[in-house]
Structures are given as C-alpha cells and as structure tokens.
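[stage:ingest] chain + small molecule (6-O-phosphono-alpha-D-fructofuranose)
[stage:ingest] validated
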Amino acid sequence: MNGFNRKVLTLDEFTIQGLRDFPQATGELSGLLRDMGLAAKRVNVEVNKAGLVDILGNANKINVQGEDVMKLDEFANKQFMGALQHGISCAGIGSEELDDFVAFDDEVSMNSKYVCLFDPLDGSGNIDVNVSIGTIFSVFRRVSPKGTPVILEDFIQKGRRQVAAGYIVYGSSTMLVYATRRGVNGFTLDPSIGEFCLSHPQLQCPDDGRIYSVNHGHFFRYDEKVRDYINICQNKNAANGGPYTQRYIGSMVSDVHRNLIKGGIFMYPGTSDRPGGKLRLMYESNPFAFIVEVAGGIATDGVQPILDIQPTELHQRTPMFIGSRKMMEELESIIGSTK
Ligand code: P6P
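[stage:predict] done
[stage:export] tokens:
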C-alpha cells in the first residue's frame, strides 16, 4: 500500500477493526470507548473556548475533594456521565466530581457488563491560565450480577483487574490514548473531520529517560529516601548518562503523557502533612499505572505496584511513582524494593 492511500483509522474504525480480529467480542467495550470519544469531543469544544465564554470561574460549589468546582469540571462530568448512561455498555460510573458512585437504573444499562470511573477534568486549576488539562478513565468488568443495579464492590477493584484505561489530553492538539491488554494506542483529534485518528499505534514507554517530574515545593516534606533520589536526579552528569531535565506542569495527564512519549519519571510522593499522597487511586493512579505497565513501564506507591493495591474507598488517595523501567528501578534501589 503506498503512502498516498494509507488509510488513517478513526477511533471508531480502529475499535470496529478490533472486533473483526476478535469475533467472540461482544463489542460492548468498543462501544464504551466510542462513547468516551464522543464526550471528549464535546468537552474539547468548551475547553478550547473556555476563555471566551462565561464558563470560567467557580460554580460556587465545593466537590467531594473540598475543591472549588469549576464550571468546566461540572460540564465535563455531565458529558462523560451522559454519554455512558445513554450508551449500551456501562452499568454505572464513579467520578471525582460526585460523592458516591451512580448506578444507572434503566434496563439496558443494568444489563451492561462494565463500570467506568473517571476524573472528568484533571488539572482544572490550570483552566484559567490556559495550561493543558485532561480527562482520565478506568474500566472494570462488574462483579455484581447483570440486570441488577451496580454496587460499591463493582468499583473498588484492584487496578490489575481493569479491562481498559485511558486519558484525553486537551493540549496543543487533543489526544485520546487508551490501553487494553493488547496494547496502548493514541488518537489525535482532526478538527477538519471531527474524528480522533490513530496517530500513535502501539505506544511503548521508552525504557529509560532524562526527565524527572516532581513538585520541588514539597521537597522538605518528602521522605528522606525520596529526597535522596531527587538529589541523584539533580546530580546526573556526563559521567552517568548525562544530565536530567526537570519538568512539572502541575497537570498529571500532561506530565505522564510527555514521559510516556519521551521517557521519564513522574512522582507525587506522600508528604509529612499528607502521607497518603494527593492523587486518587481509582481514577488517576490506577488508569495511568495500567497504561504505563502495558507500555512497558512501572508504577508503584513506593512500596508495592499501584495495580496490586486493594482499594477500600472510592476516593482514596495514594502516593505514586510512575515511568520508564530503568528510572523506576533506580528509584526502587534507593527507596526500597516494590516487588
Ligand atoms: P500540586 C491536579 O490538581 C493534580 O491532581 C494532578 O493533575 C497534578 O499532577 C497534581 O494535582 C498537582 O499537584 O500539589 O503539585 O499542585
């Protein structure tokens, strides 16, 4: 096939192609991913004009995290929840913006086999300063019987049981990246046709990297061994592979996406005042840990793999260290093994 006729697969075509390759698949997961893509396109429109309409500023509400709810947060939450509720693949959702999970009560939804957890707009504190933000999602097969309303146990499953996970980054371009056990694939939104098009097939996290991402403002509140590793990052030089670069956007989706493409390590450790860390296990750390592990990287809470943590609550937090295998192995040699 010559380059001129190379067919760029849209997200829909890619997921449907996947069904042709796995005839036994019901198509429900493909349908759920397409529903997420549809909602992402609607959110993208509002994110791209956030500065132009009265969608900035707080919605005068406080969410379960005790944070001001930005109007865009609320809009995004409604779009993803609505797309999944009106699809045929999802029985219920958990969201950073909602205190409790939502069990969809229509018959079609109750007979669906998946549940989805998401952070509809992560990094929303960056909206007003035009720094890239993102959506993060995680998909589990429900454990309760189909035909009944979902229950908490359908959501608080170990991350290793995810069937898919992904994110949308609303940046210089808008990308949707998702992983199943068969691989990680990235799709870039082509505004001229309004479709996500396959741009990064079979993404692999580089085995090593020169970028480390951490909030230095918390440095003296980190554990001593974490500080030791950060000092090692700062002392890299030509004698040991070349200097590192420090990059920290304050939007996890952007920081981890960059490291996934270029190689690197992202850290949000626990601190003396917040030993459990800041990031949410179910809809921030688990999905990224799944994606990065499928792509060949490593993700831990500093003691064990993120994906092996047994959740107890929908909104529980966890420290997180995630990135290129060799960088993570050096980290583990400093802070202790996570095997
Ligand atoms: P800090 C955004 O609020 C977020 O949840 C992540 O996207 C980001 O990596 C982190 O918090 C930034 O937190 O404390 O460094 O501002």
